Amino acid sequence: MISGASADIGGEFTNNLFSDLAPILALFGEQVAKQFLSESTGWADNILFAMAPLGIITAIVSAIRVAGFPWLRAVIGRSKEGQGLVELELMSSNSRDVGEMWNGQAVVRLVGEPTIFQFIYESNPAADDPYRGIHILEKTNPLFELSHPDESLLSHNILIPPNISLNARGIPVSDMEKWVCASLGVLVQLVVLLYEAAITYYSPLKSKSIFLKDGISASPEAFPCTAVGTIALNLGMLICAHIVDRSSIEEHWKIKKKKEDKDCKIVWIQKGGTVNDQVFEPYIIHGHEGQRKIITSRRYDIKPPTSLQYLVLVATAISVVGFIFQFIGLRGMTWSASIAQLAATLVMTFIRSVIRRRLTREPHAEPAIKEFELE
């Protein structure tokens, strides 16, 4: 009798452990979430982040740091935080506060004002080209043009550090690939919800011992609670990711049609010196050959509108309530429902890493002669 009671206690403990595993693990993943959010440049990225999310707390805190009410930033202990640190950790942009430099091994982001210049090099310039195939990125650039010039909000200032990470790590992932992966993410989350519905309501499945909760079928109310919580959490994460994405403005430059046969690449010349107490040597950094697209990203310097601040409040509330509902719902279901959600999180983490595969590549860089790198 004692051994039977011990077995019941052990089984209940195991069931509860697995039921709690997925939602609790989804709360963490700070660096993974920050890395993905800092490279997001559109709705496809936001949807990818929101499906079976990892780093829920980080996403909520990030949205508050970017555009939350002052009292909300004080709640999370960020009331005195400068905009430069927020941009450094969460945004894809560069500004007078934040820049990117080559430290000899990798491109690093840092707070400070690095001296680095960006040039577009054309390997076979026309004989009458007065610039010998070397150009800067501006509206009169003969090689590249803005995809949506009427929507431009940026003032292209050569003194603002250029975006190396967005352009130097190989060919950017296409929008089509991002949307395919985002659609796959929605499908993965939907499959998990359908599975949870099946083991709750479909008689041939819910009566099997593996799908029983404490020896009986899961409560019919558990799945609606789980479904509402999951959908609310997905929506909250989507809004949080959008808020972070909206904090910077991206422009996409594409090569002109009449120049598509040209072989172009970006070259960055980095002046050596000390930036934010870090010593950097002079380097010439080479982008990839056959550059067809250039992305620029700048911080949205206008104070967040009140509507966006209220949106942060709504996103925070939806995310917290959604997580609570999902947690309670999964607790009322068999452990396999929680494992299914955990599997979805792992699958989506892998898909997100595939979309960010450029981060594993580094550009080619060669040392320059100090004091003569910009001569």
From TrEMBL:
Protein name listed in UniProt: Uncharacterized protein
Positions of transmembrane segments: 47-72, 179-202, 222-244, 308-329, 335-355
Alphabetical keyword list: Membrane, Transmembrane, Transmembrane helix
